[in-house]
Amino acid sequence: MFNADLLTSAKVQDFIKLATKKKLDALQVSTQLAKEFSNEERAAIMDYMALVPKFREKFGIENTAFLLCDKLALEQSTAQDIGRWKATLWENARQANKNNGENNSNDSAAPIVHDLCCGMGGDSFYLPKEFSTIGVDLDENRLAMYRYNSSVMRGISPESSDAHVILGDVREVATHSNAAASDAQHADYFTIDPARRAIEGENQRDLRNLTPTFEEVIEISKHYKGGMAKIPPGYPICEIPKGTEILYIGSRTDCRECLVLFGELAQNPDHVRAVMVDKTGNEIANWTFARDEKREARNESEQSQYDHNYELEGRDRVYRTSSSESDLPLGGISKFIAEPAPVLLRSHLFGVVALAHDETTHLISPGIAYVTSEKPLPSPAFANYEILESSEISTGAVRAMLKSHDIGKLTLKLRGVKVDPDQEIKRLKPKGKNAATLFYTRLDGEKIAILARRIE
User: Fold this and answer.
1) Is there a contact between 258 and 230 (Cβ–Cβ < 8 Å)?
2) pLDDT tens, 43-66?
3) Does the N-terminal or the C-terminal CB of the chain have fewer CB atoms within 10 Å?
4) pTM, full prediction
């Protein structure tokens, strides 16, 4: 059972520091704890100790600092790279209001943000210091986390921590947000991360099964000047209301969040934006285009077809292949094949980005997000490969292709074809001096192997 007082006590934290310094193993830790703590307390402390290095890495805090969380709260919380970049959205909104000359009796006070469904507080950690934050949740344990973590990450004094949390239903709290400034529940803005899990540790696969529902989030937004809602990246864009901005954020290798920006935070209403950030939250690239009603008008069965992910168990990890809709035409294999960045794949912007650079760009099979073109596409929007040769997917044909190019080191990429990459590479037994990438995909629906070399 979660015990905030136990985990934040000097006694426990001093023990964790000592155990970390001495590099005690699990048995040694358990033996030491058994001398002073009950079995239940010992289990809680050991579970927490497993999270300590994870939250220090996730939030970029000192290796002696502590936050308060449990496994689920940590998994659901926004990491430092995304959190630091999102802080710029709040600052941009504040500066825009300042430049517009907006003045009222409350302008001298710090803008107040309700962190709805606050969890351990990850969406508040990196907000500009000019903003005051209030965590709102139905779970007292989550509010205990929020209080403690706000003191660590935002310098909120423990004495005033109760003024920075509200125990209650976010839907009800929102209705009081636009009350007079003296009202304890007043706030100017909101951020919300609706619950997406059915039970602890189990991902909620129904994108519409959010708590509160996205329809309720839209109603909540009407009580604030502006705000942001985190939704699953696969959520159907057609259900997001006009006047908002849709934002996909991730790194070079993943798409981690989809945000819907409301009111004053929507600096580009009725646009879709994809943003790529580095490990410290600095922006690498961004792409912005007006919403496309044609694409959003797809029916639900088409959406399911295009966004379906295949998961294949490999030796060391789960391999994922993905497909996505775009407006690119179909055609044969050109000189280059490219993979769109995950944020462009999820936002469905990769087609317009590609065509803006090379009008010859096209798909080689409907619904599969490998694009081919006569010249390399811009990086980091795309990872480009020069095509060396192609063949049917058969052991003899592929082996002959590898041999002709003296390929010994092989990376296998899949879209639209189900095989275990580890086992397939073993079966092909590549022997040679060169390295290459082998694509197993489809050409106009038929399976094809494409051998290519990465262009950096």
Assistant:
1) yes
2) 999 999 999 999 999 999 998 999
3) C
4) 0.87
